[in-house]
Structure formats: structure tokens, C-alpha cells
Amino acid sequence: MNVHTVSTQPFSDQKPGTSGLRKQVPVFQQRHYLENFIQAIFNSLEDYQGKTLVLGGDGRYYNRTAIQTILKMAVANGVGRVLVGRGGILSTPAASCIIRKTRAFGGIILSASHNPGGPEGDFGVKFNTSNGGPAPEKVTSAIFEASKTIQGYKILEAPDIDLDTLLITQLNETTVEVIDPVADYADLMQSLFDFDRIRDVLTSGNFRLCMDPLHAVTGPYAHFLLEERLGAAPGSVQNGTPLEDFGGGHPDPNLVYAHDLVELMFGDNAPDFGAASDGDGDRNMVLGRKFFVTPSDSLAVLAANAHLVPGYKDGLAGVARSMPTSAAVDRVAEKLGINCYETPTGWKFFGNLLDAGQATLCGEESFGTGSNHVREKDGLWAILFWLNILAVRQQSVEDIVRDHWQTYGRNYYSRHDYEGIDSANANQLMEGLRSQLARLPGQQLGNYEVDYADDFNYTDPVDGSVSKNQGIRIGFTDGSRIVFRLSGTGTQGATLRLYLESYEPDSSQHGADPQDALAEFIALAEEVAQIRQYTGMNAPTVIT
């Protein structure tokens, strides 16, 4: 089979963001566009020939087509072995698991995570390095530089591979294996959690759960682990078949987009436990009966109860959270006597801490939680963690969270998203905020005195690298915060994310609705940033 070198010219827009290169499907379908970016990945790497590459995606539209192209390019570029998930399927945490288990030089994950799919939807390509985690900035920068000077790409002339059958085949000097996408990940989960104890609860007849993968990649994993291996009643996993357009839905596990699950969990005769995951399986939402657990609280509860779970019974080395995530886990870390690290948004920032053994659990307010078992956030792992805690404590989700607040206080918290706004206006809003930072400390805003105001900078404690301008923070003397940040995960316009947090130590005040408890901070944010003026919106698109 012949290898061809196809002449090409660079595209100017192939700079990877926080989670790889994300564009709308028609952009990737442009002639040479996907091929250029894949070749840029290979051109930026060293010493990968003859080694193993992991390949798979979330099943969204264009996934299969892209995999066939990447397989042929991997062969042409001298990769020794390619492990590809059956059906082109691999959740992001499962890909990380397999990269680590097989000691692959890396993996190419095809996903736009929680973004919509379909012919006019979004698509993405992300390279993960040999530790199983997202490529750090020095690697993504090298890929971008390679994309700007590319003159051609290598590709094998060969028929497509049958992706739906487990097989091993040889293409020139490359071995291609179509593997079970679930098996290795399922074994890892069983090594971490007390499956016998969880099974006893799920088969007791006194406990019902509903898991909604939103027609995305977690479906096969949830069916196997929850229903087959752990004995949950058939039908406990709903919307579990991955679809190219996610059934016309938005695969983002929050109170707005997982509306069917939310309606079920807040309705009459609700199940005891509800959960959802996103497009590529790395995010999670957890619900009790008529009770929503914020991602920030979820991370704190997992950290406080980790000793109840076999994989973490010996204690945590440390915890880490993204800067916009609430400080709830900080209070747990303080009580446990361990470090709590505050990082920029983006899972890649946790990688060094995990590799260095400085952190065990990590979390982001954007419904992402994970640990040192892989180098990605992991939605189904978080759900199993919760089930293990529920099985040991024999309490409801709500009771466990309220007990936690009783011990640590409650961090009232909310995120307001303003999606699809004009990019120039969004940047003007942020520049307007930056121009105020120097004079805000010491000022009185409403009933609160400003303690600090800055554009968050992070110095990595492991390698000393510095990341600047990671979000604007306005902190008050009572510990409350307002944070403004532009998202890097969308493909159209800009998304302004507004984060609001207020700490309440008095347990008699823990029953308020977060939007009511945070009402004054919402008004202050509008006043300081002039959100309506710059976004043209009277209200957020999404509130979580």
C-alpha cells in the first residue's frame, strides 16, 4: 500500500484552545483542514515512530470519517501501533486510562466535549500526551507553530478499516487494533470502588437511580458498569445510545440542558439518585431527590468522604480546584491538613500536580471532577464515587450535603453564562474591568468592602511556568467573590462566564435559594462590568 505526500497550504485558524482545536463541522470538512492539523501534531512531536497511539472519540457527527483519515495518516507517519475504540468510540477518561495502561506516546481524542453535534454542530481534535492528560501549552504551541508552516501531509492509500468488529490488522508496518472501548476502563473502576457494597444497594429494591448520558459517549460505559456489573434495574440508564447529533440535544450535564433528568428528579416519586454526563464523558451532574449538588460542593463532599472509598482510604496527598470553583474544598483541605491548589481553568493545569503526587482529587465548577487514576476529569468515576459514599453512609444525597454544610459552612455559589455574544464587545467588557482593578481595593461596593481585585496569574508549583490573565477576580473582606472570565471552549462568538460566591457559616441560613443569597452580588457584577450594555442581554443564557 502506497504512502502519498499531499501538497497543502497552512490555515491561519488552527491554534488549539484549552481542550484542543474546536470548530464547526463544515470547517473541518474543508479540503485538507483536518489533515493539516493532524500532520501538524506529528510534525511537532519527536521519537514517536514505532510506538503506540490511542485513537477514538465521542461518536458525534464526522467522528468515523475523521478516524479513517487519522488511521491512514498515522500509518504514513510511522506509528507502530494504533489502538482505536470499536465504533470509533472512546470516552475521554477511557482514552486517558488506555494511554497510561499501554504506555502509548499519546492519544488523539475526537470530541467537542459538551458542545452540540450534528452536520452543522461542533467537532474537535485534542492530543493527549503520554501521561494520559491534555497536551500542555508548550505542546499545543508547538502544534500551532507547525500548522503555520505546513507544506504537505502524509497519508496511506488504503481501504477503510472495519471499526465495528474487534480485530487486529496490519497496514504496512503499523498494527491497527480495534479494541473494546469499555473493558480497561471498567477494570480500573472496579479497582477503585467497593463494587460489592454498591451492588448490594442497587439490588436491594429500596434504591432507584437514573443515569442520563444524553445520547453521548458514556452510554455504553454506564450500561455495562451500572446495569450489567452492578445490577441496577434495566432502564436505569436512559438515553444511553450514542447518536451523531446527541438526539438533537445539547450534551452538557447541567440544570438547563439535562432538563428531562431534572424534571424527573424534582417530580413526584423521584429516584434516590440522578446523574448525567456530557458529550465525551468527562463531566458529571449529581442530583438527589429534589436536590441539586453543585460541582463545587460535590468536589468538597468527595474530598471529605474519600476515606470511605477503597481507592482513597489511605488519604489524599492534596486537592486542587480551578480558580472560579468555590472555596468549599479549601475548607475540607484545611481540616484534613493537606494542601489545596488554585489553578487556572483547564484540566491540563492539574496534570503536573497529579504527576508530582501533590494532589489526589481535582475539580472544576464546570461539572468536571477527577483524581490521579487518569489525567482527565471523569464523569462516570464521580458518579461511582458518590454511589460508594451513599452505600457506606446509608443516607440520602441531600442529607450528606446538608451534614457537610453543618460541618464546614455553605458556600453559596452560581455561574451565569452569557453565550454567543459579540467577541469585540466581550473583550471591551473585560478591558473595562481591567481598567478598574487598581482602584477597587478598599472601595465599598454595596454592603461589601473590596479586599482585592486582580487578573488571576498562576505560577505552577512543579515546573515554575507562569499563566497570566486567567480571569478577573473581585474579592471582598468577608470571603465573597465575583469572577469574570471569557470561555475558550465555544466555536461561535464569545461566552462570558460570571461566577458568584458567598460563604455562610451559620447553619440556620443554609436553606436559601442560591440566586436569592447571591442577589446583591449579581447586581454588583452588573454595575461594575455593565453586562447588559456589552452583551445586549437582560439575563444569562444559562444559570447553574
> How many H/I helical runs?
18
Write down the overall mean pLDDT: 95
For the largest beta-sheet, the strand count, sense and barrel status come to: 7 strands, mixed
End-to-end distance, in Å?
Answer: 53 Å
**Low-pLDDT residue spans:** none
Binned, the helix content reads 25-40%
Q: Which architecture of the largest domain per CATH? A: 3-Layer(aba) Sandwich
CATH superfamily of the largest domain: Alpha-D-Glucose-1,6-Bisphosphate, subunit A, domain 3
The total count of strands amounts to 26
Beta-strand fraction estimate: 25-35%
What value does the Rg take, in angstroms?
23 Å
* Structural class assignment: alpha+beta
CATH T-level fold name of the largest domain? Alpha-D-Glucose-1,6-Bisphosphate, Chain A, domain 3
Total discrete domains? 3
CATH class of the largest domain: Alpha Beta
Shape: globular
Query: How would you describe the oligomerization state of the chains in this entry?
Result: single chain
Please state how the strands of the largest beta sheet are arranged side by side. Answer: 2-6-5-3-4-9-8
Topology:
Elements: E1 3-7, E2 21-24, H1 25-28, H2 33-44, E3 52-57, H3 63-76, E4 81-89, H4 92-102, E5 106-110, E6 122-128, H5 137-149, E7 152-156, E8 167-171, E9 174-179, H6 183-192, H7 195-202, E10 209-212, H8 218-229, H9 259-265, E11 273-277, E12 284-288, E13 291-293, H10 295-305, E14 318-322, H11 328-336, E15 339-343, H12 348-355, E16 361-364, E17 368-371, H13 379-393, H14 397-408, E18 410-421, H15 423-434, E19 444-445, E20 448-455, E21 458-459, E22 466-467, E23 472-476, E24 481-486, E25 494-504, H16 514-517, H17 519-529, H18 531-535, E26 542-543
Parallel strand pairs: 3-4, 3-5, 4-9, 10-11, 14-15, 14-16
Antiparallel strand pairs: 1-7, 2-6, 5-6, 8-9, 11-12, 12-13, 16-17, 18-25, 18-26, 19-20, 20-23, 21-22, 23-24, 24-25
